[in-house]
């Protein structure tokens, strides 16, 4: 592997890892506040991508501007999904049944997308779609960098909300120990709803970032479920930094394997990582207490 | 808390039950249904109806195979299509490459699927709940990638043709496979029933309700789970092998589809995973609806929406399934339930919560 290729793979891996990390953050939030594994997260990502594409083809404006609509809409949708669907599940079988429920949600979204927009592959065209720039002999697409920046901004705002605001404090308390949080006067029900909404709002950002760079089609979310599941199991769903670290590592490894193995076989790295982790450390590498029993 | 069970004599339950009528009724209904199923190929000679019948039996066999894991241990596998697809491809490859006779290929491939399921089970059963579901999905995704890419052996995306085992007309071909599927289904149901009544099955059901407590009581949880996991893969693989022989054309996208795994879960949940005939009933409902949606809406994505909505409705409103619900409807007319009965962990938790709420009015759980 030449130096330029090495650098190129590294940059691609970091850029992709940023997106994975954003996805992992959303998943960790859902799991933290409700003990729910949100299989439909990737489907919402694709939905946001379609909305961005629809916005751009209709108005001719930049797809990033669609975030002004999709982020609040997804937040409300998330609060609604938790309120109307997730809370109806019995607590004893919550985690298992939530997987089935969100899986059903993913099927409905995929079906409706196919119904509305047909199965034709779509791509957002902007002025900078095919632009590249060069660093130290590595070619990097501008859209990839923009997607990465979007992911970093979203992660940064998430970090700010969680660490610096009172809502974030309440959220973290709810994630750590629900009963104790209730004892100190936190309305955990409301906070969990906000947590779910914020998680889904990150899907809006992630989906838009994804659509900038990739061709989208209704069944695309299956392609993202692999990385998503690997992140859940390898990272262990304990903390957002842990999951983000697992996401970044997998993104970089994936990018490096793409060169010698090709796209299809490189995709298997996620599953290999998943099964390997199960054999060595079933609770994941960063998860700890929370992840062990879900 | 006292209920009628404390008043009734425990030994009156079971063998010398005062009312044998329900039992006789059950056996009679079962016999009548079996005769109805077996005579179905004579009632129609429409190829389409016959092939739909074979399809539904295939669904029933898959879902009952799935229910070895899902029903007994409560571990929900969304990726059981992996074993179905493996069984189908193994049968096809053994016939085309090794020139095996079809029956030998069928049994060998089901056994091979069971062997493959051992390491997968060892890895997957180390985690519970959602992680387990994730691992099963991952396995079917890996197989899809491998079978698409490894074109030299599997034919890749262009598919794999299986030569027909019987040189007969199309209608007769359907009839033969209708009975082959029915026989395999009967065998599977028999094994499920035998486990359900056994001590081994009791341990498995204890795992379903509370794995930690079951382990504390001395149930060898890991080994038990692995045994039913492998059995489940065997019967699902058998369904796949029969499918390969019957349908004759395999495509990785269809054989290793998560949607097929979701159908299995949907069928078993819809009928009732604690029931012997739950998956069969679910297969009937889902099979008929799938055929209906295909004929009505064709190739649109609408069947995904329908499947998703149905799955969501079942999970939200009828997680126990149709059979327990129907039984509940009829039970209010019959004698009161006996005291010694199985209670799920969920029901127990609700019961405790209710008592709690009575003890301390105004408190939240």
TrEMBL record, chain A:
It is found in: Cell membrane. It comes from the Bacteria. GO terms for molecular function: transmembrane transporter activity. GO terms for cellular component: plasma membrane. The keyword Cell inner membrane does not apply. The keyword Zinc does not apply. GO terms for biological process: amino acid transport. InterPro entries: ABC_transp_permease (IPR001851), BCAA_transport_permease (IPR052157). This is Branched-chain amino acid ABC transporter permease. It is a multi-pass membrane protein. Keywords: Amino-acid transport, Cell membrane, Membrane, Transmembrane, Transmembrane helix, Transport. The chain crosses the membrane at residues 31-52, 64-85, 97-120, 141-162, 191-212, 224-257, 263-280. The lineage of its organism: Bacteria, Bacillati, Actinomycetota, Actinomycetes, Jiangellales. It comes from Phytoactinopolyspora halophila. Belongs to the binding-protein-dependent transport system permease family. LivHM subfamily.
